[in-house]
Amino acid sequence: MKKIAFLGLGAMGSRMVGHLIAAGHDVQIWNRTTAATLAIDGASVAGTPREAANGADAVFVMVSDDLASRSVWKGADGALAGLRPGATAIEVTTASPEWIAELSAAVGVRGARLVDAPVVGSLPQAEAAQLVALVGGEDEAVNWATPLIKQYANTVFHAGASGRGCLMKLIANALLAAQVAGLAEALGFAAAQGISMDSAMDMIAGLPVASAAGIGMGRLMAAGDTTPRFTAALMAKDLRYAAVAAASSETPMPITDAVLKVYQSLVDAGQGSLNVTAPILRYRR
């Protein structure tokens, strides 16, 4: 049994932490809004990230972006202030490589080690402990953290050194966004030519060009379903992080740049809280 701090109890984090509790670990939780902590049974509640992290073997953080992560880790009441030497910090947030590099250095100053471990999957996979974790960090730290991560992720890929987990998550989400935006355009084109979106999607699903993720997203779009699961705003954030990382290595990313404009336009139009399938709204009449 490990002593674990889990900070951030949004839609994903609240489901993931339940698997760690069910496995018998001593879990202390914290969330920016206290209402979320009331829904978690079997864990103790801390008043600050520092209090939660104090004495923990592993500190998980699962929040929305770099800014939110920084606010949890840094400051007098931040988790870094409570991180003990020898502990493992596990950053599950889909963050930028730049922030992960800064966080890794700060964790090292505390005599601890960092594993970046964002996940692929949505609410059903989180509930069923069938997420995919993309992990970055030194071998020893990753090997230590993997049994904990496997409580909520049935597949763990070690992408390489610190920051590589988040980098691979950005790559994965850029690929997903391109598929969704492309499918929205294809379905809109079909509808404009007199083929219903449902019929077009049925045919696309039977073609070798279709992916499992694309089929799932395409069916949601054909049905006009933009109920938030993973929001357009979060996708825009991930595409921005990917674009910055690509620029640092002088890697041309014209498709990602174009898809970022699609998602940023949704955010600018006040539709960022809708699902990642929201590009279909341009084509539905």
From TrEMBL:
Question: Which residue positions are annotated as catalytic?
Answer: 169
Instruction: Please state the Enzyme Commission number of this protein.
Output: 1.1.1.60
- Record domain 3-hydroxyisobutyrate dehydrogenase-like NAD-binding: where: 163-280
Q: Taking every annotated instance into account, which residue ranges of this chain make up the domain 6-phosphogluconate dehydrogenase NADP-binding?
A: 3-160
What GO annotations for molecular function exist for this entry? Answer: 2-hydroxy-3-oxopropionate reductase activity; NAD binding; NADP binding
Q: Which segment of the chain is annotated as a signal peptide?
A: none
Q: Which GO terms describe its biological process?
A: organic acid catabolic process
UniProt keyword annotations, A-Z: NAD, Oxidoreductase
* InterPro entries per UniProt: 3-OH-isobutyrate_DH-rel_CS (IPR002204), 6-PGluconate_DH-like_C_sf (IPR008927), 6PGD_dom2 (IPR013328), 6PGDH_NADP-bd (IPR006115), HIBADH-like_NADP-bd (IPR029154), HIBADH-related (IPR015815), HIBADH-related_NP60_sf (IPR051265), NAD(P)-bd_dom_sf (IPR036291)
Its protein name is 2-hydroxy-3-oxopropionate reductase
Organism annotation: Hartmannibacter diazotrophicus
